[in-house]
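can u do me a favor
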């Protein structure tokens, strides 16, 4: 995501808004410190990524051994 300083945002506002409207959000910073994020009004909200499927799937107890015999056979192991 692009970060622009306050002066650059003032001088290039039309170009930056056009980019944001196309889905390319940007951040405006002052003295190198990010202040605001500019994004299109109809932009989809970003999903919370970490743990977003908690409780939706179950990992089998033998997950780390699933298909072990078949894999060993592919690499010349005994079946």
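np, heres the sequence
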């Amino acid at each position: 995501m692009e970060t622009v300083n306050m002066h650059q945002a003032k001088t290039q506002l039309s170009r930056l808004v056009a980019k944001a409207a196309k889905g390319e959000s940007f951040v405006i910073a002052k003295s190198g410190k990010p202040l605001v994020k500019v994004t299109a009004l109809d932009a989809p909200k970003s999903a919370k990524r970490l743990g977003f499927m908690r409780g939706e799937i179950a990992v089998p107890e033998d997950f780390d051994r699933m298909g072990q015999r078949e894999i060993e056979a592919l690499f010349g192991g005994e079946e």
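The mean pLDDT is 87. hope that helps!!
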